[in-house]
């Protein structure tokens, strides 16, 4: 999805300031320089899943009033973008 949107944005003359992509890398398609790739884990989240989730939250906060935030979401987001609440740790047993 990110590769396809990046190509669309380039063709349409859209500016992308930043983006985050989380999940397994599929194929060799180049990812735009504005995007950060996170090799997050599914079905069980890992530390990279947490980093991806925190980056996604930061991007949402950075979009600010009047900004545009586009979210392309597919299955597995609960594991790929995992930010534990409060003092909960991903490594803690459930």
Please characterize this protein's 3D structure.
With 94 residues, the protein is an alpha+beta fold. Helix content is 34%, strand content 9%. The chain is built from three helices and two strands; from the N terminus they run H-E-E-H-H. The protein has helices at residues 2-12, 47-63, 77-80; strands at 19-22, 35-38. A two-stranded parallel sheet has the order 1-2. The radius of gyration is 14 Å and the shape is globular.
How many β-strands, per DSSP? 2
Inertia-based shape: globular
Largest sheet: 2 strands, parallel
Beta-strand percentage range: 5-15%
How many helical stretches?
Answer: 3
Enumerate the spans where pLDDT stays under 50 for 5 or more consecutive residues: none
Kindly state the percentage of residues in helix: 25-40%
Separation of the first and last Cα atoms: 33 Å
Strand order of the largest sheet: 1-2
What is the radius of gyration computed over CA atoms, rounded to a whole number of angstroms?
14 Å
Structural class: alpha+beta
Return the string of H and E elements: HEEHH
User: Mean of the pLDDT scores?
Assistant: 88
Described by its quaternary structure, the protein is: single chain
């Amino acid at each position: 999805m990110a590769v396809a949107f990046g190509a669309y944005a380039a063709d349409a003359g859209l500016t992308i300031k930043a983006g985050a992509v989380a999940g397994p890398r599929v194929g060799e398609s180049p990812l735009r320089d504005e995007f950060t790739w996170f090799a997050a884990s599914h079905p069980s989240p890992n530390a990279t899943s947490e980093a991806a989730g925190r980056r996604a939250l930061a991007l949402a906060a950075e979009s600010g009033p009047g900004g545009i935030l586009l979210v392309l979401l597919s299955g597995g987001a609960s594991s790929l973008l995992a930010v534990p609440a409060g003092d909960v740790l991903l490594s803690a047993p459930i």
